[in-house]
Structure formats: C-alpha cells, structure tokens
C-alpha cells in the first residue's frame, strides 16, 4: 500500500527566505507526482505535475524535483512571500492496483513579513 | 476553460434534509471524483466516475449518492446526514481515468463547505 509522508508538518520562515518542502513515498512505481497548494477552507490549486519519466518541473519561483528510485520529491520555493502562506500537499498516483491519488498530510507554511 | 466549478460554496442542512452538491467542468475530462476533507486532514476519495460510469466507491455510506448526468456534470445527493459528515467536499477531474493513458494530473474545484446540524 502506497504511503506518502511530508516533512516538516509545519514551517515558519521570514519573508525572502528560500525553502524546501519534502515528500517521500514508499512505492516507487508511480505514474506521476503532483504538488498542490491549499489555502484555509479552500480547494486545491495544482502547482506542479511531474511525470514519472521527468526529474523536475519549474513554474516561476517554484521548482519541484523527483527521484523516483529513492521515493523522494522536493518542492523548492525561492524568495518566499507572505502570500505563499498555505498548506502544501504532495500526491502520487501509483501503478497497478486501483491507481488512486494518494496524498501526504501536508506541510503548513507560514511566511512572516 | 480550465476550471472545476462547485456549487454551492457553503451549505447548512438538517439531519432530515435532502440536498445536492453540484460540480461542472468543460475541459473534456473523462474522469470525475468526489473527495471529502476534514479539518487538518488530506482529502479522502469517495467516488470515481470514468466515462460517466461509477468505477470506484470507497465504501461510502448510502446517505451519499453520486450521479453523473453527462460528461461535464457530477452531482452528490445528500440525505439523512449526520453531524460527523460536516466537512469540505471537493470535486476533481482528470483527462483520463485511473489506469488509463498517461494521467496529466488532477484539477480540483474550490469545494463546498457542508455543515450538518
């Protein structure tokens, strides 16, 4: 059974700092990995999607990497801003079985002005 | 149009009421999903519709009844809910169903905040 772990559970940083959020998964046979952002009480906003054949994806100040063999992904946020404060969720789709989207519990990020 | 639209945004209902949640997408996605999310928890899958047919029911109580009238619409009918069913209900869609051709990721709606009193 696929399990997704996100570390840390919460992170507080000053504005302008570069930061890394971590995601690990137990079954490396994945189709893809997707990072989402969720503001309190709101829906999920897709940030980056990495296919299993890819190593990284970039969008603006965000860069996500994938090391499928070791079961790890990182989300790098450059020059953090207070508007980046949210919960960041990592999710994978595993090959075989029901191939459902499996989420980590998220990292709650607070960027202080 | 790259959005999943959910209505209503907020819903308060009594335990004897019948209500429906609605979800709509016009991206031509062939799979649609209902998720339930409790506070400070990740979303939990409830139902999957693939090509307008129910393909996955995650042992959800019968007081939740999904419906897919066409490829763009997904409903969740609610009846005789309990206070513990209060949660954020999220709809999502993807270009292809799980297990199909390469999945290009999921698009989520903004959710319906449901309170059962």
Largest sheet of chain A: 6 strands, mixed
Q: Name the average pLDDT of chain B.
A: 93
Strand content of chain B: over 45%
Classify the beta-strand content of chain A into a percent band.
over 45%
Based on the structure, what is the oligomeric state of the protein chains? heterodimer
* Gyration radius over CA of chain B: 14 Å
Number of strands of chain B: 11
Q: What would you note in describing this structure?
A:
The complex is a heterodimer of chains A (113) and B (117). Chain A has 113 residues and is mainly beta. Chain A is 0% helix and 59% strand. Chain A contains no helices and eleven strands. In chain A, strands 2, 4, 5, 9, 10 and 11 form a six-stranded mixed sheet that branches. In chain A, a hairpin with a 5-residue loop joins strand 4 and strand 5 (44-51). The model of chain A has no long low-confidence stretch (mean pLDDT 94). By secondary structure, chain B is mostly beta strands. In chain B, strands 2, 4, 5, 6, 9, 10 and 11 form a seven-stranded mixed sheet that branches. A four-stranded antiparallel sheet of chain B has the order 1-3-8-7, with no helix packed on it. In chain B, a hairpin with a 2-residue loop joins strand 7 (64-70) and strand 8 (73-79). Chain B is globular, with a radius of gyration of 14 Å. The model of chain B has no long low-confidence stretch (mean pLDDT 93). Chain A binds chain B through residues 31-32, 34, 36, 41-46, 49, 51, 89, 91, 93, 98-101, 103-106, and chain B through 6, 41-43, 45, 48, 56, 88, 90, 92, 98-99, 102-111, 113.
């Amino acid at each position: 059974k696929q399990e997704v772990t996100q570390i840390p559970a919460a992170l507080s940083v000053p504005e302008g700092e570069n930061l890394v959020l971590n995601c690990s998964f137990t079954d490396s046979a994945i189709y893809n990995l997707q990072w989402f952002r969720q503001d309190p009480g709101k829906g999920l906003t897709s940030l980056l999607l990495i296919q299993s054949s890819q190593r990284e994806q970039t969008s603006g100040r965000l860069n996500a990497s994938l090391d499928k063999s070791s079961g790890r992904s990182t989300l790098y946020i450059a020059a953090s801003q207070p508007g980046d404060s949210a919960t960041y969720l990592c999710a994978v789709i595993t090959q075989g079985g029901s191939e459902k989207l499996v989420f980590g519990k998220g990292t709650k990020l607070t960027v202080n002005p | 149009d790259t959005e999943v639209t959910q209505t209503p945004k907020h819903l308060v209902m009594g335990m004897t009421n019948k209500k429906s949640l609605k979800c709509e997408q016009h991206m031509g996605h062939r799979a649609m999903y209902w998720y339930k999310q409790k506070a400070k928890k990740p979303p939990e899958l409830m139902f999957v519709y693939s090509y307008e047919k129910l393909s996955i029911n995650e042992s959800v109580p019968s007081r939740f009844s999904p419906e897919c009238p066409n490829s763009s619409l997904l409903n969740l009918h609610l009846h005789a809910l309990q206070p513990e069913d209060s949660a954020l209900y999220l709809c999502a869609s993807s270009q292809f169903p799980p297990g199909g051709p390469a999945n290009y990721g999921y698009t989520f709606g903004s959710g319906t905040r449901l309170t059962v009193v």
